[in-house]
Amino acid sequence: CLPYGMDPVEQRRKEIEEKRRKLEVLRAARSQKKGPGVGVSSPGAARTTSAVRPSSARTARSSGIRHRPDDEEESPKVRAGTSTSDILDSVSSILRERTAPAPTVVESSSPRTPPSGGGPLNQTPSEPSTTPTLVKRKVDLVVHSTVDMSVAPKAVISYSKEVQTAEMENRELGKNEEEEEEEEDLRVLPKEEVKVENEVHNKEEMDVVNEPHELSTAEKKEILGSEPFHLFFDRASRVVERALSMKDDQLDIFADYAKGEGDDEDATNFLEKVNLVCEFNDDRWSRHRAVTDISWSSKHPELLVASYSSRKETYTNDPDGVVLVWSMMMRQRPEYVFQCQSAVMTTLFNKFSPTVLIGGTYSGQVVLWDTRAKSTPVQRTPLSSTGHTHPLYCMTIVGTQNAHNLVSVSTDGRMCVWSLSMMNQPQEMLELKSKANKDVAVSALGFPDNEVNTFFVGSEEGVVYGGSRHGTKVGVHDQYEGHFGPITGMSFHPSGGPIEFSDLFLTSSIDWTCKLWSHKTPGAPLYSFEDVPANEQKPNTCGDYVYDVRWSPVHPALFASVDGTGSMDLWNLNEDTEVPIIKTKADERALNNVRWSADGRKILTGNSDGKLFVYDVATEVSQPRSDDWKRLEDRLTDIRSSRIQTFSLPVFQRKRRRFYEVC
């Protein structure tokens, strides 16, 4: 704001005069520097400058007019000849002048009220004011001094186990290398002593942990009666007797006369070829129940399912039918427990829906369980004339992911084809009749690999029947005779490999035999693998019912069979057709079923006391070599050439008569 009663023109004139005086002062100061007293500031000039500068700054701020560039260039010259305080004042004044905001003009149409004592504006109260009003803004500035200095970076020091203070001290003291090595040995010696003490302590702990415990009477009896112990004792006793009676030191008392030329030690030790991996048994659900069927999961290779018959002695709230799902990763108890009102005679995983399990019951119903639901069936077929009314011992799934069906056959010869999405009634129904127009009492069912129309069934009279679901020959049209008793199992050769053997299939029977067939040549079997009675004293055999047989899914010439003595036999057609290459005894109770895992490295068996056994088969036995298909083809050629002489009618009749005499 302007001082009270001062005209703007007059104020501008005063400012100009004041700037002129300032120029004169600057010129005087410049002339003093050029004279003999250069560098000595005049007190009078300093006072004059300091006196003029505040008034000039105040005038500039009040008028809102900035200094000219030439004035600003000359002002530092004055500061150079004055004192430090004057220089700081001058700099502060110049900064305030340069940073001062432009004056804000406020136009007011309202009458302006003059201060008390009269107004210098020469306006009447009623006259509107159009004079611009200058608003003064206060700017707070602080002058900071800047100092340039160089600061060294902070040193980063790292330490390790190899940094030793003793080494620095040795260098400072000027010790030689020999003294340093002696001190190093002294430092290492306590570490070695501690290491030795730790080893002794760990050995003592291991001795305590591995301290042998006394065997119980049952454990001693089991070891003394085991086959590995008998083989070991027999071999060890021979070695000891050789050593006692030997007179020539050059002889080898450890010579193995059973080892052929070119055979390695592992090839003769059959006990190491098949090892028991685990055993599944549950006192609550599987004890005193016979295993009726077993199956591996195609989705999860560690899962397996087993169905069980009813107990002879029933308990309260004890279901007749039980199906247990076991896992190789949890062997103490089953993963799932499923129940049914009737004994379950056959079961399997749905390979196209891994969460669904299917069971066939003694009452003739087909039931479905789901692992996502409760333990009771989620679907079941009706007990009526439209379905099965007799026991179901066999069923299978045929087709593809988008078009598949469940095929089941009961003991009255009725074959039903079901859609798993609708179990109210079968999509197809077929009555299987023999040539004598009698119902076929089916005990086994099989389809060739990748086949949905042609099927084969084994009957209780020992005859294998071949038939078709569709076409000109619907029903049974071929017969394969060779067994003398009911057929218990059937398995078709898996497809794959350089040579196709999908026409081959195996059957097992309670007549102590497994038979090899080809559906391309109906009639008698190609070969019979006999597990004859013990009174004929044939090596590696002990006659009993053969309850199941299965081809290996990967090896073309390998298959497994189980019998009533609790033994499991592995046969390799390329090696020997007279005796099995491996024979192992799982339990004293009869083995009812056998199944290979998908990779052919494990075998699952179940016995008549509700126990499941999983065996690991060695790679040299389970995995085929590149020439195994060609060798099997040559072996089949030899078998077919001797087929007529081996299975002539008189021989067939004599064997059947001998079977019934023994029974």
Task: Walk me through the structure.
A four-stranded antiparallel beta sheet has the order 3-30-29-28. The protein has a four-stranded antiparallel beta sheet with strand order 4-5-6-7, with no helix packed on it. Strands 8-9-10-11 form a four-stranded antiparallel beta sheet, with no helix packed on it. It has 13 helices and 30 strands. It starts with 7 loop residues before the first helix and ends with a helix. 27% of the residues are buried. The chain is elongated and about 150 Å long. Helix content is 28%, strand content 25%. Residues 37-81, 104-130, 169-173, 260-268, 533-542 and 645-653 have low confidence and may be disordered. The protein is an alpha+beta fold.
Q: Care to give the gist of this entry?
A:
28% of the residues lie in helices and 25% in strands. Strand 9 and strand 10 form a beta hairpin.
Task: Describe the secondary-structure layout.
Elements: H1 8-34, H2 43-63, H3 69-81, H4 84-99, E1 104-106, E2 133-135, H5 165-173, H6 177-209, H7 217-224, H8 227-245, H9 265-268, E3 274-280, E4 291-296, E5 303-308, E6 321-327, E7 336-340, E8 344-349, E9 356-361, E10 366-370, E11 379-380, E12 392-399, E13 404-410, E14 414-418, E15 428-431, E16 442-446, E17 454-459, E18 463-468, E19 475-481, E20 487-492, E21 504-509, E22 513-518, E23 527-530, E24 546-551, E25 558-563, E26 567-572, E27 582-585, E28 591-596, E29 602-607, E30 612-617, H10 619-622, H11 628-641, H12 643-646, H13 649-662
Antiparallel strand pairs: 1-2, 3-30, 4-5, 5-6, 6-7, 8-9, 9-10, 10-11, 12-13, 13-14, 14-15, 16-17, 17-18, 18-19, 20-21, 21-22, 22-23, 24-25, 25-26, 26-27, 28-29, 29-30
